[in-house]
Amino acid sequence: MLLASVSSVSHFDVAWERGVRGCKQTRIETDFYLRIMNIDWFELTAAIFGALSVWLLARRNILAFPLGIVNVAMYVVIFYNARFYSDMALQVVYIVLQIQGWYAWSRGEKASDERIAVRRFTPQSWLLSGVLLVAGTVVIGYLMSRFTDAALPWLDAGTTSLSLIAQLWMNKKYLENWVLWILVDFVYLYQYGVKELYLTMGLYAVFLVLAVLGYINWKKQEVAAHEV
């Protein structure tokens, strides 16, 4: 009788443990599916286009520009919803710059491997970049803080200005554009983390890695071109 009682308790414990494990597994699976359902698929799609565009830019491939146009057009909507108004306006300007860059790369000087040839900054280029950065940050920051409810007006203005400068130098095929992108990507990681745009934050982490790889790749090609 005692043995039967112990055996039934043992079976009950096993059944209870299995039930608890099953509930935990079900809860884990439910949490996973809820996270999947809560993913902003529009933002994810924009992020994928952006990552592909930067990867192609790092490889000096002109197909980066049409993908980039799709990316920035989608981010007009994303940044409007996040109240990053200067970043939203930046995307509109980017569309124009992407078209200009596409045209410039299709007609510009080619390297020996038929991709774009790389140029280098002069001291005047660095000085001009600094002046444009300060001027752009002051003007855009003032307008955003005075006339909008932008979440981070001055930081937003600084990243907007630096991004425009970097894009202009990229269109002109200067190696140092990647240095500027590396700097701005670090700031964007903080900025989008504050706004809980985690997919976009992850995208800019990828951008940061690609910017470093882009600099390394362009640098190698620039050195190889001078050795020929």
Q: Which stretches are low in confidence, meaning pLDDT under 50 for 5 or more residues running? A: 2-6, 24-37
Separation of termini? 94 Å
Shape verdict: globular
Oligomer: single chain
Radius of gyration: 25 Å
Overall residue-averaged pLDDT value: 79
Task: Summarize the amount of helix as a percent range.
Answer: over 70%
- Biggest sheet features: none
Strand content: under 5%
Number of strands: 0
Would you tell me the structural class of the helices and strands? Answer: mainly alpha
Work out the helix count. 8
How many domains?
Answer: 2
Q: What is the H/E order?
A: HHHHHHHH
Description:
This protein has 228 residues and is mainly α. It has two domains: 1-38; 40-227, no CATH class. The chain contains eight helices and no strands. The radius of gyration is 25 Å and the shape is globular. Mean pLDDT is 79; it is low at 2-6 and 24-37.
Summary, kept brief:
This protein is 83% helix and 0% strand. With 228 residues, the chain is an all-alpha fold.
Topology, please?
Elements: H1 2-38, H2 41-58, H3 64-82, H4 85-107, H5 123-147, H6 153-171, H7 177-194, H8 198-227
